[in-house]
Specification:
α1 runs parallel beside α2. β2 and β3 form a beta hairpin. By secondary structure, the chain is α/β, with parallel strands linked by helices. It has a 7-stranded mixed beta sheet, with helices on both faces. It has a 4-stranded mixed beta sheet with strand order 5-10-12-13. It has a 3-stranded antiparallel beta sheet with strand order 6-7-8, with no helix packed on it. 38% of the residues are buried. The structure holds Salicylyl CoA (2NE). Salicylyl CoA (2NE) binds next to β10 and α4. Pathway: Quinol/quinone metabolism; 1,4-dihydroxy-2-naphthoate biosynthesis; 1,4-dihydroxy-2-naphthoate from chorismate: step 6/7; Quinol/quinone metabolism; menaquinone biosynthesis. It comes from Balneicella halophila. Keywords: Lyase, Menaquinone biosynthesis. One of its GO terms (molecular function) is 1,4-dihydroxy-2-naphthoyl-CoA synthase activity. It is an enzyme of class 4 (lyase).
Length: 270
């Protein structure tokens, strides 16, 4: 499979193959932990993936065979957040969570090893998770002086249930890929050698389906948890669909032609 680089970055790789944009956190020396720059690069890549209509699915993964992502880089954790080159402490990974939720295309976590701490939350937030047999899952926040009470808690609980979510956070245990599958935390588990092939097959299947239908289903599934913001995203797409109808064109044309709009000729549905 020949991945083509979309844009060069320092902390991530961003590549394209047959409708799939792949973001790979490329910091193997720290088990693919993210620092502010890593997150800024991921956000930039997500913006490109969002705007580019050739991109139908986004895959998020980590470099190597040991880790998907080990969360925030503890080497740069200062007082008030993770400190970047500008000296400002940030928690900009939350912007990435919002971006994964709002991009109107499926985002698939290809979990190739440890998904720990903020790295675990990243896969949780993705639409689908495909894991290799060596993948290990868990939260560490309460052990290392952190927590994610946002999607990392509420959406996790929607996936595995309240009791299990509390266990995951309150005990900070690690779970095998098999256990993750049993609790519905991942969609499937395959060997590490098959991981990318399996992920691409799932992507290709989605690419054959209606993009607008998948987009609206993602909006609907999000809206349940995302409140007014989720409804706003869904309403925005309803507006997009209305703009595609002649009925909406008539309104605009009547205004520009300085006449009364005539909506009578459009079908009325029960
Ligand atoms: C990931 C894990 C379980 C891997 O264990 P193992 O035994 O395979 O590797 P090892 O030796 O622990 O790590 C290899 C190298 O990577 C560094 C280590 O310090 C080590 O460096 P050297 O000794 O070779 O120099 N490394 C690993 N994870 C790192 C990290 N997150 N930051 C900086 N360096 C890291 C094991 O490494 C582990 O438990 N890692 C820490 C996981 C963790 O606690 N992450 C932070 C959670 S908090 C968070 O991410 C967060 C949040 O809770 C809320 C919002 C945003 C972020």
């Amino acid at each position: 499979r020949e991945w083509k680089s979309i844009k060069e970055y320092k902390d991530i790789r961003f590549e394209f193959f047959e409708g799939v944009a792949k973001i790979t956190i490329n910091r193997e020396q720290v088990r693919n932990a993210f620092r502010p720059q890593t997150v800024n690069e991921m956000l930039d890549a997500m913006d490109i993936a969002h705007e580019n209509s050739d991109v139908r699915v986004v895959v998020l993964t980590g470099a190597g065979d040991k880790a998907f992502c080990s969360g925030g880089d503890q080497n740069v954790k200062g007082i008030g957040g993770y400190v970047g080159d500008d000296g400002v402490p940030r928690l900009n990974i939350l912007e990435m969570h919002k971006k994964i939720r709002s991009i109107p295309k499926p985002v698939v976590a290809m979990v190739n090893g440890y998904a720990i701490g903020g790295g675990h939350v990243l896969h949780v937030v993705c639409d689908l998770s495909i894991a290799s047999e060596n993948a290990i899952f868990g939260q560490t926040g309460p052990k290392v002086g952190s927590f994610d009470a946002g999607f990392g808690s509420s959406y996790l609980a929607r996936i595995v249930g309240q009791k299990k979510a509390r266990e995951i956070w309150f005990l900070c245990k690690q779970y095998s890929a098999k256990e993750a599958l049993e609790m519905g935390l991942v969609n499937t588990v395959v060997s590490l050698e098959r991981l990318e092939d399996e992920t691409i097959e799932w992507c290709q299947r989605m690419i054959e389906l209606s993009p607008m239908a998948l987009r609206m289903v993602k909006r609907g599934l999000n809206a349940e948890l995302d409140g007014q913001r989720g409804l706003m995203e869904m309403a925005g797409d309803a507006t997009l669909m209305f703009y595609l109808m002649e009925e909406a064109q008539e309104g605009k044309e009547a205004f520009l032609e300085k006449r009364k709009p005539n909506f009578d000729r459009f079908p009325k549905f029960p």
